[in-house]
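Moderator note: this is an archived Q&A kept for reference. The question asked for a predicted structure of one protein chain; the sequence and the answer are reproduced below.
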Amino acid sequence: MTCKLFEKDWLFILDTIYQLNAIGEKEAFQREALKCLRMSIPCCQGIFYSHLIEDGRIVNLGDPVVLGDEALYLDEFHERYLKDSFFERHVLASRCEVIRDTDVYPEEVRTQTEWYKQIYVKQGIHYALRAVLVYNQQAVGEIDLFRPKSDPDFSDTDIRVLDILAPHVAQRLWKLIVIEQTHNVARGLSSAFFDTFGLTPREGEVIAAIATGEPDREIAHKLCISTSTLKKHIHNAYRKIGVRNRQQLFAAINSKAK
């Protein structure tokens, strides 16, 4: 898209990236991202989802963060309309993509869809601008901004600003998702877990460190052992637990925590 941005637009973009990169908690990050966006792209409602794709379906990581008007009928939308081809294409995206509804569907078509009549009309929204967030070919979330029919549609400048910000937001969101998931796994560890698999105290320390997401070199340094000794402890612990890699380890920890 060829749309010239002014100095104020670039200052907003740079300041937003700086602010968002300083936030270390996922929900706070989502809320701050929506606040920043509404300063440059006014909207009556903003929704920020964080999710992952597993077995071809969206798995939401907690409730979406909403700013502005209350988001109504979300459960109905997810159950009845999320598989509509218009929304399903977002799930299949391999890179960040910014979409203005009216660029995809002509008004006379869009306003006749069931999701427009049953979801949009009932809460007074008409226009939508969406940012599909993808990092390293992994869908990690989506930002939806809405306006009522009485307001103008989202402009080319709005699209351009969001298009520049989307990759930065996706990258930071991915890092916060990883941090949140490793913390959840670490909380699932307990003495009962170690006893179940007969881990030695040192093996328990190694597994606990791995669960926090630390790389091997940092773990070895923290435990004052060589990397070769660390690998030996990891091998022995994995054998006892019955796993071969970190992903399988996390799954085992989560399974025992339930």
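Archived answer notes: The two ends are 48 Å apart (CA to CA).
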